[in-house]
Amino acid sequence: MSLTAHIPSHRKPRRNAPKTALRAGVAGGVLSTIAVAGAAGPAQAEPVTQTIEMPTITAGLSTAVAASAQATQQVAQDLQTQAQEDAAAATAAKTAKKAKAEAVRKAEAKKKAEAAAKAKAEAAERASRSTARTTLSATSGSSTGTAASTSSSSSSSSSSSATGSAAAVIAFAQAQVGDAYVPGGTGPNSWDCSGLVQAAFRSVNIDLPRVSQSQSTAGTQVSLSNLQPGDILYWGGAGSAYHVGIYVGNGQFVGAQNSSTGVVQRPLSYDPPSGAVRVL
Questions:
Q1: Overall pTM > 0.90
Q2: Cα–Cα distance between 254 and 265 in angstroms, integer?
Q3: CATH of range 163-278; options 3.40.50.300, 3.30.465.10, 1.20.120.910, 3.90.1720.10
Q4: Radius of gyration of the chain, Cα coordinates, nearest whole angstrom
Q5: d(C-alpha 22, C-alpha 232), whole Å
Q6: Residues of the chain above pLDDT 70, percent
Q7: Strands (DSSP E) along 116-251, which ranges?
Q8: Can you give the residue ranges of every domain in the chain?
């Protein structure tokens, strides 16, 4: 027997394998946890330290701000354009209104001038007729009874010679005696001078111009000393006559004189004509 056999051994007993493996596993797990924690630590801090992403966000914001500024500028330009267009439209409207007022003023002035000219012409016509009547009256007073008888006989002869179309024209004109005088009137119950003459000749299918100026040159010019029934009498110049009538014989005529007398039959001495034309 050994001398030391009775002394207990101070060596630690060997641990069994399961406990060793368990401890190894726990240690491994702790180390793994530490490793994971170490790995997770920097990952969680990364959003804080990686500030290089901020310029991207700032650039996008700058683009949006620039776009907004451009849109605002465009709106401002549109408003300015609209304001300019409105101002131009207002100016045009004002100009048009002024032009219209000026046109109305000129038209009124022209109308007044025409009315004044017409009144002056009528006054001159009345004065001329009055002078002619005075002259004719003086001439008639100095004429002999023989000359008057000869004239009357000649007129009667002319009247009795009216036949055919001339007789029809005279009959139509005499049938309108007593009708009203209306400027521009063409019948059947109101007439102006040229409207009556035109209608009388239309009754025998002869178309004459509508106005006295043209009717005074519609036929062959004849002397007032050589009148025949149916001749057209005119007052004023040939081509510029202001009045017409129809010679009916016996030194008389029928005409739509004026609004006071209407259509009348009067002797030539009532209103001596300037000339005559023969259509028939």
A1: no
A2: 4
A3: 3.90.1720.10
A4: 62
A5: 153
A6: 62
A7: 180-181, 190-191, 220-222, 232-235, 243-249
A8: 88-140, 163-278
